[in-house]
Amino acid sequence: MQPNQKTQTLEAERTCHAGGHLTTNQGVGVANTDDSLKAGARGPTLLEDFVLREKLTHFDHERIPERVVHARGTGAHGVFQVYESLSHLTKAHFLSDPNLVTPVFVRFSTVAGSRGSADTVRDVRGFATKFYTQEGNYDLVGNNMPVFFIQDAMKFPDLIHAVKPEPNNEMPQAASAHDTFWDFVVNTPETLHNVMWLMSPRALPRSFRMMEGFGIHTFKLVNAEGEFKFVKFHWKPLLGVHSLVWDEAQKIAGKDSDFNRRDLWNSIEAGNPAEFELGLQILDPRDEHKFDFDILDATKLWPEELVPVRRVGKMTLNQNPTNFFAETEQVAFCPANLVPGIDFTDDPLLQGRLFSYLDTQLTRLGGPNFQQLPINRPLVAVNNNQRDGQHQMAISEGQTAHSPNALNKNEPHPARGHESYFTHMAEKLEGNVIRERSASFGDHFSQPALFWNSMSAFEKKHIVDAFRFELGKCMNKATRQHLVDLLGHIDTELARAVGAGLGVTPGKAAPAKPNPASSKALSMEHTVKSPKTQKIAILVAKGFDRPQVDAMTKALCAAGAQYEVISAMLGPVEASDKSTVEAGQTFATASSVLYDAVYVPGGSHIDVLKQQSGDAMAFVAEAYGHFKAVGLTGEAACLLPLSHSPEEGVVGDPQQFVAALGRHYARAGVMEPAAPEVVLRKG
Ligand code: HDE
């Protein structure tokens, strides 16, 4: 794979430690970095040992503060290219020239957990993209959900204090299922829309390659004539939007806490880039006030049925970082990093973010020069009078560092003429100085109801189960009651179903404004389904049917799926025809939750699998329980106790198996009535 422009510049920065002799940081050669300098072989150690002191000192300072939120993350390099010129909408070069390939770096993250927490926790995912454009760096710092918990940046520290581990005992890690989070939610009903998303399967992405991204805020696109349109940014994954189920997510957190990170890394290493299309929702300024929500309110989305998403370009993440710390840990995103042609709106959440990112990075990255780190440095020249500061890397030449100046002919000069430069939209502002929330931000229930109405039966069940789990972990009974009462304002069935699991009867409140609307785009049910890059477990023991395995692996490879052979022991496993296949995993190292589907060929090995290794039966049963495709050929059919139909995703034929890859949520059945009068309607 050809490295892109950014990775080429990073290449130039690389320090290769493969060859040469050991030196100190001063470049002085050393022959021994294993033993400290002592008075006699048994000590004591001498203070003059600068080699020991240097090694320990550097080690003592190897960690930097983790991000105050989004601490756990992983990154990848790639490129972005627009399909057609959008110059009628924006003067941003990278969106105007379809021949331009813009390098990008993306960091995906969870929000609440510490840097070492598990990947598959219930949480929002960050989706931050740095475009290294020819006009400077542009950062689109988004999430995998289209709305946020709060409307005003002023509430952010409260939200994060509430969701992070509780301050007295630092529990629980990377989880919203505790009292302080729900105490904040019930007392801040503007959170409810994002909370509905958080309780949905969207909070458990199967892969970073299979989740959407959203800029959330309303931004502006500005063209060369100075005309603007409002815009919402979307990332649409080409593999569709897919999630884990809760039981699976919890088990993966123990079996492979790097599950999402590993998935991205391995896919890229295997030559399967992560691909996303950039989508735009465009709104004419004349239509700013035509909706029953305020477009400056970050707790609201623009239903795609009202404002369609136009796919305008593609991002391909095709290169793993060389060094996690240098790139993924040190990358610094900031929503204030704009290029000409894109501008902010007055969204009060966005306005606060414009301050917070640079501010936090001054501490995290130790001073004002972190923009000079290779991963943060723009491709274009940086030219200004800023000087000095901690960790200054540039050796600026000349006498002047002020402007205007005559001593250096006023260089660097203000950009002019055809030089690319940023100008803020000339907008008339007026209003009283006031600390108040706009009344147009006041409806906290209609869009959560829209989301709920749009869910499939399975998603509704997931949401109800998630509320029951989360509130079940919340010890304060008043909080549980309060939450169920609030859910009553969204949907009566939802409130009753959640309440039944918590032993709480919803209050009398009916939805303030019954909202029967639904939006197809909000449900994962209608997403793209593809066998590509799905990971299949093939279970074998001595005596398996080789031709059946060959037929299956051929069909899987042709469809772009991947497989791993699992047996009781590593190494060659003998088939009925005496040929062998290599087992790369065992029942000790592998688990059904780490695969998208399972296949077991027929043959005499079934008796071995059943008798000697109950693990195989548990493997198949668990995959079935998590709604995965199950391929059982010939004698293997007995591994599932009851007979199942192809409609349920249980098949034997390779082509049918490939077609069945994906989740079969119909197996979940109808939701158990929570109370005699409650039956969830189908989504
Ligand atoms: Fe962030 N957020 N945020 N945030 N955010 C940070 O900046 C903040 C918000 C998002 O991979 C911090 O460098 C405030 C919305 C992502 O490095 C910090 C508010 C959205 C990342 C910060 C918000 C995001 C961050 C912590 C409310 C989606 C990780 C470390 C006004 C549109 C970026 C850092 C990465 C990181 C502040 C709300 C996305 C503290 C004050 C809304 C993806 O500056």
Structure, described:
The chain has 683 residues and is α/β, with parallel strands linked by helices. Helix content is 26%, strand content 15%. The protein is built from 17 helices and 18 strands. The longest helix is centred in the middle third of the chain and has 17 residues, at 348-364. Strands 1, 2, 3, 4, 5, 6, 7, 8, 9 and 10 form a ten-stranded antiparallel beta sheet that branches. Strands 15-12-11-16-17-18 form a six-stranded parallel beta sheet, with helices on both faces. The protein binds CIS-heme D hydroxychlorin gamma-spirolactone 17R, 18S (HDE). CIS-heme D hydroxychlorin gamma-spirolactone 17R, 18S binds at residues 67-70, 73, 107, 109, 126, 128, 141-143, 148, 153, 156, 216, 298, 332-333, 349, 352-353, 356-357, 360-361.
List keywords for this structure.
six-stranded parallel beta sheet, disordered C terminus, globular, alpha/beta, 683 residues, binds CIS-heme D hydroxychlorin gamma-spirolactone 17R, 18S
